[in-house]
Specification:
Among the domains are: 141 residues, no CATH class; 192 residues, Orthogonal Bundle (Cytochrome Bc1 Complex, Chain D, domain 2); 72 residues, no CATH class; 126 residues, no CATH class; 156 residues, Orthogonal Bundle (Cytochrome Bc1 Complex, Chain D, domain 2), CATH 1.10.760. The protein is 39% helix and 5% strand. The chain has 47 helices and 20 strands. The strands form eight sheets. Strands 13-9-8-17 form a four-stranded antiparallel β-sheet, with no helix packed on it. The C terminus is likely disordered.
């Protein structure tokens, strides 16, 4: 800026000229840098994504309001309907631009904090907004985080988010999957518990068949044919059960026939009466003047056989009907179908009361004890404090009483050793548990896909004659889907293992049998998780007191009065519901049929409370298989009229919370419930003293809270939603006062979710953490999570724009998007690295040099365009060159990434640990050693994988995109090293990567799609040296196919038009013919090309030195052995196999596999003399011979063709006729001809 004008600096000389000309010599000057220019002169952010001519949202195509909303025709700032992001910004805009909140424009702009919500209009699958090849920087991180939270916390269990309006897609679709599996389990239970003799013996087989169909659907609900078959069978049986009632509705039936029908109704197995009735109907049908209606005649076929299922089973039939667009998400909570085998009533009661008391990081929300909004009404507070413990007790009773029998996994007979917690700790760390779970025993683990397993003994305390939490835990670890059919926890193959000594060899039993001592890994892990002090107890609750029994009666009466008149409800409470009246009831009131007992009352209140609270939205609960979501549908909530939002007295409540403008009290129940009512009383008084309009949002210290208080004052949906997520019951403030004559069950039901609980827990684990630090961490995380969820919910508008604006991915992108959803469901990234680290570096010419290229096969040589090469050689305005390094941090000998420290006096980098040992404090400059995985350009020169690089200084790195996934693999590497070095002290740090879950970089180029699909469904060991095998996930074939397609799409830019370069039989025959001609030219004996390739593979210097081939086993120890090559033709793609054999480190830099057929000399076998020493030629060099004759490329292709066609090769060498012809002299019994 020169005076009052702006001038552009065209370079360094111009800058120096202005500095010289604009100052007075001899006096100091002040330099002020401005980075960019203020609005409206600055460019739009993320021009790669928005507005730019090369972006997917070009200005000329999309405009502004499709994303920002607001009044697009406005020509003045104040009329454009901007929305400020903070109260301070609102005041500034009003002062500078005349801004005001225009209530007459119903589509104001989103504030900056919610700007990402508009993405959902056009991007209906949230996975479309994840980072990608084109956009490595997250396009909408807050929105994606919000969608993840909605999924993790199961918000859709109560609030259905239907993404369809008929056939039209209108937004994200987040709904529970249909209850196919729970309904099938319930049917199986009802069949198993039918009284013996209820079904005539000839029909038992039919019932058994339905039972088997139910079991199949329970295990595989995705199989539509099985499900439809079950629906048809139960539906037909239900029609049989209803046939008599329909017949009795016919007024034309003679009395005698009506008597027969009633006889069958009372005694379905009365065969004589049934036959007479059917005969009469068939005869009446043929009569000239039939007495019965046509509909009654049509019942004859159904009446020939009694139903084999109970009426309760018939009610389940419609749950298996096809749905046009069924939900796809599994319930987020664990199954409670067999909960009595896991938890005792006392533990269950404690868990329902406050989940965070049992597990601080539990995602289950808190339903009870949320009384802050009741402090101004002592009567309402007292009522809640009386009723809530009985509601909890009733829920506990219902869940325990209706819990179905569960058979724990039986102990393995070969196990000889008792459970051991020390072994369990090692197994817990190495078998994949830390990929999803945290435990304080391994504080490095930070996974939160599953629950934190620290102090599990506080939850699992049941120990009785027939039920045990410890047995349940062992059974769960062995086979999770045995307990919960729809769990995402995999089977980790915790089969019995031999107990090994310090040398790694199995120990044998002392009984002289020579049998190994066997351990039970599942029992060992259970012992570790429960701890050595675990004893267990009956875990029962004390009997109800007389006062509690009276309260139970009151609570039951409040429910009864919602169904019956008050006088009748009181009568039924005292004497029970008469049997004839109970037969007409469909709800929970049927539980009170007959005499009333305490157990019946608890069951009734429990069932009604579970239904009211919506527990079945997250859990599989017996009796609630067909329960619907209880909350408001959210598909269009972002457009919901604010006049339909019940703000009630919320502004008064908030004014009291902030004490008329002081925002120190916060918004969480954790503090308020823990204090003796003093703070709450102050808030209650403050609410009565302060007019809500006197609360100035500008005076609230936290600008985020100030923004939402202002939004509440203006009755905007953002403020409503913030308060609803922050304090869901606060909208009952003053509304439940006795003066308003409220019903107890009219109170709000939404629970308080533990936003920020994980952050608070993590902060509490830090050394020296104080309450203020913990509270600050929780508050920050809570605000972040709530605003992320709000960003997602505000984007649910159910108003998609014109079709041309809705994102319609191409087949490749669609496969990636669908695969991302499956990856997230099963947490594949917890174990496997999906994307490598990326470093953008800027360096001076000569600071990083590419090493001299090694000799590699031409097909491995990367190709860069001329423009790419020239660009890499072009310095920027600072004289720096630029490059992108793609790979992993190099691993040091302890299994950790190599981090270096700059030692200025020696002008070199040394390991950071070494620096810390020698010097105090931290170094001024760090450096990183990088292992390159992908070819790149350095100053015009090609850098290949595995090529050495100098340490990359921290100040060279301009951007770092961290690797995606593989956290458990990185965590396991040092643990694996420590374990393996007990028997193999020389193991190197880099070697450990071969023992942990492998990176899936380029997986689609590596494995065949069909094989990968089958492997995911039924995994089997491939690498002998790994510490853990691939677990079996509870996934459908559709899930597995989507994952295989995902990897193929990410690996092939032209997917689905890519192809596997497999050689045809004609190609192989032509190559063999050329090979035989070559042998003739060399004067060598005739042989086939693949036969010679096999001899190379099975030679001791060839592949079998490390790999087995079928049943030809290698001599290598398991840790050093590679996969069996016998099934490579099914597993690997030929192109990948060729690249891998040509130069293994080019594909997998950490591999120990060496080049079998070097490009410069091929595979040569040294000739040995009788003493086993190399024979020398005339020059004194060892004599060598070729097994496969030809160049290195020809040898390589021959081996690849053999392995890629090994199945056909073996078949061509096997005589089926020879196997079928059995010599008579062997004494086999031959088949006799018919009649002999």
């Amino acid at each position: 800026q020169v005076g009052q004008r702006w001038e552009q600096l065209t370079g360094r000389p111009a800058a120096e000229r202005y500095l010289v000309e604009q100052v007075e010599w001899g006096k100091p000057i002040t330099l002020r840098y401005r980075r960019g220019v203020p609005n409206p002169f600055s460019s739009h952010p993320r021009l790669d994504l928005f507005v730019g001519s090369l972006s997917p949202h070009k200005l000329q195509d999309f405009g502004c309001t499709i994303c920002h909303e607001g009044q697009g025709s406005a020509t003045q700032f104040k009329w454009a309907s901007h929305t400020p992001n903070t109260p301070a910004q609102a005041a500034e805009w009003a002062r500078k631009h005349g801004w005001f909140d225009n209530h007459h424009w119903i589509f104001p702009m989103r504030p900056e904090r919610f700007v990402e919500s508009s993405c959902l209009k056009c991007h209906h699958e949230i996975e479309q907004l994840l980072p990608s090849e084109r956009f490595p920087e997250p396009p909408a991180p807050t929105l994606v985080h919000g969608a993840d939270l909605v999924t993790q916390y199961g918000c859709y269990g109560c609030h259905e988010i239907n993404g369809y309006d008929g056939q039209k897609r209108i937004g994200p679709d987040l709904r529970n999957e249909p209850p196919y599996a729970p309904a099938a389990q319930q049917l199986a239970y009802l069949i198993d518990t039918q009284p013996p003799g209820q079904v005539p013996q000839p029909l038992v087989a039919q019932r058994t068949s339905i039972r088997q169909m139910a079991d199949q659907v329970a295990w595989h609900p995705e199989d539509a044919d099985d499900r439809r078959g079950l629906y048809q069978a139960v539906r037909e049986d239900a029609d049989r059960g209803a046939a008599v009632s329909k017949l009795l509705a016919d007024p034309g039936l003679p009395d005698a026939v009506r008597t027969l029908a009633r006889t069958i109704q009372d005694s379905p197995d009365d065969t004589k009466a049934r036959t007479e009735l059917v005969d009469w109907l068939e005869a009446d049908l043929k009569a000239v003047s039939p007495q019965a209606r046509t509909a009654s005649h049509n019942l004859a076929q159904l009446l020939k056989q009694p139903p084999v299922l109970t009426p309760a089973a018939h009610k389940l039939a419609n749950l298996w009907k096809d749905s046009e667009h069924p939900g796809t998400l599994r319930r987020v909570g664990p199954s409670l179908r067999y909960v009595a085998s896991k938890l005792g009533p006392a533990s269950l009661n404690r868990w329902i009361t406050n989940p965070q008391d049992v597990r601080p990081t539990s995602k289950m929300p808190r339903f009870y004890g949320l009384h802050d909004h009741l402090q101004s009404s002592p009567e309402a507070l007292a009522l809640a404090q009386r009723y809530e413990p009985l509601e909890i007790r009733a829920i506990t009773h219902y869940l325990t009483a209706r819990s179905q029998p569960f058979a724990y996994a039986p102990p393995a007979p070969e196990v000889s050793e008792p459970p051991d917690a020390n072994r369990g700790e090692v197994l817990f760390e190495t078998r994949g548990c830390l990929a999803c779970h945290q435990h304080n025993g391994t504080p490095q683990g930070e996974a939160n896909h599953g629950p934190n397993l620290t102090d599990l003994a506080a939850k699992l305390q049941l120990q009785s004659a027939d039920r045990s939490s410890k047995q349940w835990l062992r059974s769960w670890l062995l086979a999770p889907d045995r307990y919960h059919r729809r769990t995402v926890m995999p089977v980790t193959y915790l089969t019995p293992e031999p107990l090994r000594g310090p040398d790694g060899k199995p120990l044998v039993r002392d009984d002289g049998s020579g049998r190994p001592r066997m351990t039970d890994p599942a029992a060992d892990i259970a012992a570790y998780l429960l701890g050595p002090q675990w004893q267990g107890s009956s875990d029962e609750l004390p009997p109800l007191t007389e006062d509690q029994r009276e309260t139970l009666d009151e609570l039951a009466l409040t429910f009864l009065k919602t169904v019956f008149p008050t006088s009748q409800a009181e009568q039924y409470l005292e004497k029970g519901i008469p049997a004839q009246r109970a037969a007409t009831l469909k709800g929970a009131e049927i539980e009170l049929a007959g005499d009333v007992s305490e157990a019946k009352l608890l069951t009734y209140v429990g069932q009604r409370t579970i239904g009211r609270a919506g527990c079945a939205g997250c859990h599989d609960i017996p009796g609630f298989e067909g329960e619907k979501p209880i909350g408001t549908t959210m598909a269009d909530w972002g457009r919901k009229e604010t006049s339909k939002l019940a703000f009630e007295h919320i502004t008064h409540y908030v004014a009291g919370k902030y004490g008329g403008g002081h925002g120190d009290h916060g918004h969480d129940h954790h503090d308020q419930q823990g204090e003796a009512g003093e703070t709450a009383d102050h808030h209650a008084e403050a609410a009565g003293e302060h007019d809500p309009h006197e609360l100035d949002p500008l005076e609230i210290k936290d600008p985020t809270e100030g923004f939402f208080v202002a939004s509440l004052q203006h009755h905007q949906r953002e403020g409503f939603l913030w308060q609803k997520l922050n304090e869901p019951r606060s909208y009952d403030y003053k509304k439940v006062d006795p003066a308003n004559k409220p019903q107890y069950h009219d109170r709000l039901r939404m629970p308080l979710f533990p936003w920020g609980a994980e952050a608070a827990y993590a902060a509490a684990q830090q050394e020296g953490a104080d309450p203020d630090t913990i509270h600050a961490a929780e508050k920050e995380a809570r605000h972040r999570d709530i605003q992320a969820i709000m960003t997602f919910v505000l984007g649910l508008v159910a108003e998609p724009p014109a079709p041309q604006y809705i994102y319609d991915p191409n087949p490749r992108r669609r496969a990636i998007v669908e695969g991302e959803a499956v990856l997230a469901k099963f947490n594949c990234a917890g174990c496997h690295m999906l994307e490598l680290d990326r470093w953008n570096v800027a360096f001076r010419p000569g600071e990083i040099d590419a090493p001299a290229g090694s000799k590699i096969y031409p097909f491995l040589q990367p190709h860069f365009s001329t423009s790419q090469i020239e660009q890499s050689k072009k310095p920027d305005w600072r004289g720096r060159l630029h490059a992108e390094l793609v790979g992993m941090p190099r691993t040091n000998n302890d299994g950790h990434p190599e981090v270096m420290a700059w030692l200025a006096e020696d002008e070199e980098f040394i390991p950071l640990d070494e620096y810390r040992d020698e010097f105090e404090g931290e170094p001024d400059l760090l450096g990183y050693n990088v292992e390159i995985w992908q070819p790149t350009l350095l100053d015009g020169q090609t850098l290949l994988p595995k090529d050495p690089l100098p340490t990359i200084s921290q100040n060279m790195i301009t951007r770092h995109i961290a690797a995606r996934g593989g956290e458990f693999a990185r965590l396991l590497v040092p643990i694996a090293l420590q374990q393996v070095r007990q028997t193999e002290p020389g193991a190197a740090g880099q070697d450990a990567w071969a023992w942990v879950p492998p990176p899936l970089i380029g997986q689609g180029r590596k494995t065949q799609e069909t094989w990968l699909t089958e492997f995911l469904l039924q995994p089997f060991p491939i690498r002998p040296g790994v510490l853990l095998r691939m677990p079996k996930f509870n996934m459908s074939r559709s899930d597995a196919a989507r994952l295989a397609q995902y990897f193929a799409a990410t690996a092939h830019p032209n997917y689905p038009d890519h192809y596997e370069a497999r050689r045809s039989p004609a190609d192989l025959e032509a190559a063999n013919l050329r090979y035989q001609q070559h042998l003739q030219q060399l004067g060598l004996p005739s042989s086939t090309r693949l036969d010679d390739a096999l001899q190379l593979v099975v030679n001791k210097a060839g592949c079998v030195q490390c790999h087995s081939l079928g049943n030809l086993l290698t001599d290598q120890a398991a840790r050093a052995a590679g996969p069996n090559l016998g099934n490579v033709y099914r597993r690997l793609q030929p192109d990948y196999l060729k690249n891998w054999i040509a130069k293994p480190s080019f594909t997998l830099p950490y591999t120990k596999m060496q080049e079998l057929i070097p490009f410069d000399k091929g595979f040569l076998l040294t000739v040995l003399n009788e003493e086993g020493q190399p024979e020398l030629d005339a020059k004194g060099d060892p004599k060598t011979v070729q097994i496969v004759h030809g160049t290195a490329s020809q040898q390589l292709q021959a081996v690849v063709d053999l392995l890629a066609n090994f199945g056909e090769y073996v078949e061509s060498r096997t005589s089926i006729r020879g196997l079928a012809e059995r010599p008579e002299k062997a004494g086999e019994v031959t088949a006799s001809a018919p009649g002999e």
